[in-house]
Write a structure and sequence with these properties.
Layout lengths: L3 H13 L8 H18 L3 H11 L4 E3 L24 E3 L3 E2 L5 E7 L2 E7 L21 E6 L6 E7 L3 E8 L4 E4 L2 E4 L6 E8 L5 E8 L4 E5 L15 E2 L12 E6 L6 E7 L4 E7 L2 E6 L4 E7 L5 E9 L5 E6 L4 E4 L2 E3 L2 E8 L5 E7 L5 E5 L11
């Protein structure tokens, strides 16, 4: 298990050993892998924020996003712009009992507040998962405000550690994100800030965690009806692909009666492809593991097991009612672990058991009669 506090202290220690303009991006991203766990759980962006500010070393920065403790948290301290004007203040977000996320701060001394509901059910929630299974590193959407400012919502792709938004006046806003939609497997990380009227965003830079890349895009024109759909580029100028991989999980059979299952991991959810004789099905990611009966066009049938499991799982044993046992080896992709395989159609699943690399049983599920969700 990753020690978040130790990782955070190590990150600050590393920052202290380098001049701000010379901090190695690779080192920061490696530390970010540990810090990301904390951000997803409590929205803590102070450690990541310190790293990205040092890496980019902007002359003028407006800080936004993240969540921390007291008034000394870097994410809640007003930052003066280079021309002496008061910057944007963003307070640590708070999460209400009903899941709503409360953002607040100030633009040039004038306070603002904004509430994002913790559900993904369309406007005014503004869940932005509208442009494909694999989201861009950062999607932006303009929001109406009551104070004359320009509100900007941001949604992160799963790979995004932080983002720096450059405004038309040259100032920059650093977003570290907070988990806003918490129901797995569809957790959504996003952020919100307000900028002065008359400003726009001319560039977005993002640090990608798993691929250890820095990417950028011109988000213009910003709109309030659909999120930004623009090309993204890597540091070398090459386009960033937003096509998710197709990962085989398991197959069984022979000739024309072959069955197979694969996963297409998206930003915050996943799709499973089930392929058999004359049939192709796509299923959304279950919360845990699902055992589902399938029938081909030729009348052949099977059972397909698929889903996501706990991160240290290396083996899944499936016991069947005829006394046989099937074993499946999960596949790791970034920070998720997927499992899939094909079972014979006849015997029912009586138990699903999960093991780690040391052979220790992590858990098991005995499905109830008629129930297909086995859990994890």
């Amino acid at each position: 298990m990753i020690d978040d506090d130790a990782a955070g202290e190590e990150m600050f220690a590393d920052l202290g050993r380098f001049e701000p303009a010379r901090i190695p991006v690779d080192a920061v991203l490696r530390r970010g892998r540990a810090i990301r766990l904390r951000r997803r759980l409590v929205g803590g962006g102070a450690l990541v924020l310190a790293a990205c500010l040092a890496v980019l070393a902007p002359a003028a920065v407006r800080i936004a996003g993240g969540a921390g403790g007291g008034t000394d948290d870097p994410a809640s301290v007003a930052v003066a712009a280079a021309d002496g004007a008061q910057g944007v203040r963003v307070n640590p977000p708070t999460v209400a009992a009903n899941g709503d996320v409360h953002f607040s701060g100030a633009v040039d001394g004038e306070p603002w507040s904004y509430v994002r509901t913790g559900r993904c059910d369309g406007p005014p929630t503004r869940c932005m998962d509208l442009v494909g299974l694999l989201l861009p590193p950062v999607s932006l959407l303009l929001e109406n405000t009551k104070d004359g400012n320009i509100g900007v919502s941001a949604e992160f792709g799963r790979d995004t550690l932080y983002a720096v938004l450059t405004l038309s006046d040259g100032e920059q806003v650093t977003l570290t994100g907070i988990t806003e939609i918490t129901a797995e497997p569809n957790a959504i990380a996003g952020d919100y800030f307000e900028m002065p009227r008359g400003e726009t965003i001319v560039r977005v830079d993002a640090a990608l965690l798993f691929s250890s890349k820095l990417v950028h895009a011109d988000p213009r024109p910003l709109r309030s009806d659909i999120p930004t759909v623009v090309p993204w580029y890597q540091a070398d100028g090459k386009p960033l692909s937003l096509t998710p991989p197709v990962i085989p999980l398991g197959r069984s059979g022979s000739g024309g009666t072959m069955w197979s299952v694969e996963v297409v991991p998206g930003s915050w959810t996943a799709q499973y492809g089930i392929h058999g004789p004359g049939t192709h099905q796509m299923q959304w990611s279950p919360a845990g593991v699902l055992v589902s009966p399938v029938t081909g066009a030729d009348g052949s049938s099977a059972q397909v097991l698929y889903g996501n499991v706990e991160g240290t799982t290396v083996r899944v044993d499936v016991a069947l009612s005829d006394g046989t046992m099937q074993q499946f080896e999960p596949v790791v992709h970034d920070d998720r672990v997927f499992v899939g395989g094909v079972l014979p159609a006849g015997p029912a699943v009586t138990m699903v058991t999960y093991y780690n690399a040391a052979g220790v049983r992590l858990g098991y599920v005995v499905p109830k009669a008629g129930a297909l969700i086995s859990g994890s």
